[in-house]
Structures are given as C-alpha cells and as structure tokens.
Amino acid sequence: MKTANKSMAIEYEVFKKAPIKEALIDINIERSDRLSINSITQLYSKLKDRFPITEKRIRRSSQFELNQSRQLEVLDHREELKGYRFISDDNKKAVQYRLDGFTFNLLEPYSKWDHFKAEAKELWDLYTEIIPENTIIQRIGLRYINRLEVPLTNNLKEYIKTLPEIATEIPYTYSNFLMRIGFYDEKTNTKAILTEMIDEQEDTPDIIPIIFDIDAFYECQIDYKHIEIWDILEDLRVFKNEIFHKSITEKTKELIR
Prior knowledge:
The structure is a single chain. It is built from 4 helices and 9 strands; from the N terminus they run βαββββαββββαα. It is α+β, with helices and mostly antiparallel strands and 257 residues long. The chain has a domain at 20-31 and 90-256. The chain is globular.
C-alpha cells in the first residue's frame, strides 16, 4: 500500500509574530475490543503532574421518529465514554487518549515545530503501550488554526491571495465570507482542507480578523508498526506551510514578522 514519501528539506520563513492560535496532531486508529477505558485511565498516573485536569470524552447518539402528533419523539439515547482529555494547569496543552485515537493540542504561544512534534511523539509512545498488537492507523492529521489581523481595507487581495471570487458584474464588496477548499498532493498522497472566514466573534473596527484554518491529513489502513508516522507528519507540515505561505502577500508577512 502506498504511503507518504519522506519530505524534501523545504524551509519557509519563521515569523516572529506567527498568527497560530492552536496546533494539533491527531492520529485515528481502528477500534478494537482489546483496548479498554481502564487501560486509558492507567495512563493518567504517568501524566498527572503535567496534565492534572481531566475531562471525559463522551459520544452521544439519539434516534428519533415523528409521532402521530407530528412531534419528534426520542426512541433511543445512548452515551458512551470513549476516552479522556488530560489538560495542563494553564490550559495551553491537552492530550486526548480515546478508544479510536490520540490527539495532542497546543494553544498559543507556539514555539517551534521540533518541540511540538517531540512532545507529541512522547505522548503517542505512551499510547502505544496500551493499544493492541496490529492496531490499524486510519488517519494521521496535522491542523493549524491561524488568526490573521489585517488593516481595514476594501481590497483584501492586498493581504490574502486565496479568497472567494465575486462575479465582476456584482458591484459590491463582501462584509463576510466562509470558504472551504480541499487540496490533494499526488506526490505524498496527502490531502488538506483550508477553511477561511472572517472572525465575527470580536468587535474590531480597525482590522479585519481572518481565520485561516489548515487541516492536512493522510488516510490509510496500515499497522501502526509498519508506518512512518513522523515522516508523514513532516510531509503534512510541508503541505500545510506551502498553502499558508503562498496564500498571503508580502504586506501580510510584514505584519507578522
């Protein structure tokens, strides 16, 4: 089965004021009856000093039908404990161990890729102590959520190259947008989804806050011992960086240098 190729050494500029709000590494596995919640709970004793806060990860499902009065009636509601999320005291880091995978989240401030990857690998290695032999990896993901703040302008293309197109016949500018684009890299057999929007959560009269969310991933069905997870993550990082750096203009780069 084809796997992602090892990355060539491609280095992009590292910005002093990088707009990264959150970065995460996510590895999904095929569920197995041989992995239990008790096994996940036992990991906490090794992590409680660094990640003292715990949260349950619960999967909820419901089944409905319309009754004779044309009202929704709940036929079945189920809750399943699928894992735990262990969180640092400052809420800047979190690791999830689930029956179907692993996630490591890092909130700003973001330091370096090597530090982020090394900590994720250490936490993943703990997970490999409890998952069954021949566990199948289904997806490896690397996601970066950026928030760019550009000056108020009638021409966003001065700052962002990848934007939704408006027909030339429409004599208006947009006040908001939500755009989603899927990319595919044939060289590494990887995919990425770019979600871009104006962030309306804050009242910022002098700037336009833009969420630039890149989720790069590799889908597969491979035994975790027979796949080079960290090489694939390097490929995903190159893919993600290329999308980001080629989507912003020199004006934007000056803002975050």
